[in-house]
Design goal:
The protein has about 120 residues and is α+β, with helices and mostly antiparallel strands. The protein is built from three helices and six strands, in the order E-E-E-H-E-H-E-E-H. The chain has helices at about 40-55, 70-75, 100-110; strands at about 25, 25-30, 30-35, 60-65, 85-90, 90-95.
């Protein structure tokens, strides 16, 4: 697997902490995987947006390169037409420009304990 960058929820800095089973103060932690391409402005925008959202929502962020075997495998498995590929708790969320409002709604639903369908 390629390099993994992890940003934990505020106050949590354990790189092994993650997945939807984990909680911070009773709130589920959303595990986000971002598969990014080099020199991709949409990927950089997604990284920036996720960094901002991580200040308000408990999440872990794993960044993989599309050049790595694991990143390529995820792109193929989810049939993502373009980068970045974003997975929430291992499930396809988006590819291409990150739909930030939609992501905020999903994160807010997770905070309330609602399941993502």
């Amino acid at each position: 697997m390629g390099p993994v960058e992890t940003t934990a929820a505020p106050g949590r800095h354990d790189p092994d902490f993650g997945g939807s089973q984990a909680e911070v103060a009773g709130v589920p932690v959303v595990d986000i995987t971002l598969v990014a391409a080099p020199a991709c402005h949409l990927c950089e925008q997604a990284k920036s947006a996720l960094a901002v959202l991580a200040q308000s929502f408990p999440m872990t962020i794993h960044t993989l390169s599309i050049d790595d075997e694991a990143g390529r495998a995820l792109m193929e498995h989810h049939r993502a037409p373009m980068s970045p590929l974003v997975l929430l708790d291992g499930q396809y969320f988006s590819s291409g420009r990150l739909p930030r409002r939609k992501l905020e709604r999903r994160l807010e639903a997770a905070r309330r304990g609602e399941t993502n369908g």
